[in-house]
Design goal:
This protein is of the alpha/beta class and about 250 residues long. It has 10 helices and 10 strands. It has helices at about 45-55, 80-85, 105-110, 120-135, 135-140, 150-160, 180-195, 205-215, 230-235, 240-245, and strands at about 5-15, 20-30, 35-40, 60-70, 75, 90, 170, 200-205, 215-220, 225-230. The strands form 2 sheets. The protein has a 6-stranded mixed sheet with strand order 6-7-8-3-9-10, with helices on both faces. Strands 2-1-4-5 form a 4-stranded antiparallel sheet, covered by helices on one side. Helix 3 (about 105-110) runs parallel beside helix 6 (about 150-160). The longest helix has 16 residues, at about 180-195. The N and C termini lie far apart (about 45 Å). The structure holds adenosine-5'-triphosphate. Adenosine-5'-triphosphate binds near residues 43, 44 and 47. Pfam families: ABC_tran. This is ABC transporter ATP-binding protein. It comes from Kitasatospora paranensis. Belongs to the ABC transporter superfamily.
Length: about 250
Amino acid sequence: PAPPDTLDVRDLTVVYGRSVHALQDVSLQVPAGGIVALLGANGAGKSTLLRAVSGTLPMHGGAVAGGTIAFGDTPLTGRAPADVVAAGVVQVPEGRRVFSGLSVEDNLKAGRLGVRNRGRADARAAAEQIYALFPVLAERRRQAAGLLSGGEQQMLAMGRALMARPRLLLLDEPSLGLAPQITARIARIVRQIHEQGTGVLVVEQNAALALELADHACVLDVGRVRLEGPAAELSRSDEVRRLYLGEQ
Ligand code: ATP
């Protein structure tokens, strides 16, 4: 049997339309409770990989053309988003996409929509844990999400995902558009989530941040794995330093 709570992506190929090979034979594992970073330039296929796992590839034209995805013993290849959430894998989408007209509280409740058979007491307990992790959300629980700052919206999107009590969180560009100070705060929270036992697969343009956060990293280059290894090792690699850390 497969190790529990381990994400296992094997030989994944995703094609958009007939000709855009967004991913080709990509394999990647996230061990139970580990943090893995996915790096790469624009268009390398990072979001496509997360969307293939979470079952949210665009309906028109995004298709898994080959390979398998499993979480522990549960096959996820081609499954609907609700099934993936039920298996314990939840994505925080890029661009955050909070419901701006709804209150912070109702946004968190929306994170329970895909959750089956766990009841109200568990939802309340999950919300309290999230408010403890993000005190600013507790202060603003009755405010419309659209009034939050960018960093606070990122926290809300992460909180909403945590409402489902994932075993693995898929984070797409958590630092996008945020000031360095806010980014550092988000990074601390990601670490806390990891310390509480949740696995994290994080896509980041900010390679320095990603390598600092992760145990293991994988660099995608036009749809293929170009490099992978322990994050500390990749931080020392000449290629990574030159291409992704902006060093000469
Ligand atoms: P970014 O950091 O810019 O989001 P990325 O590494 O996440 O980049 P993807 O968004 O996964 O990359 O895109 C991989 C490739 O697939 C790119 O060539 C992109 O143009 C193409 N692509 C992405 N979404 C679609 C789509 N819905 N239809 C057609 N092609 C797409």
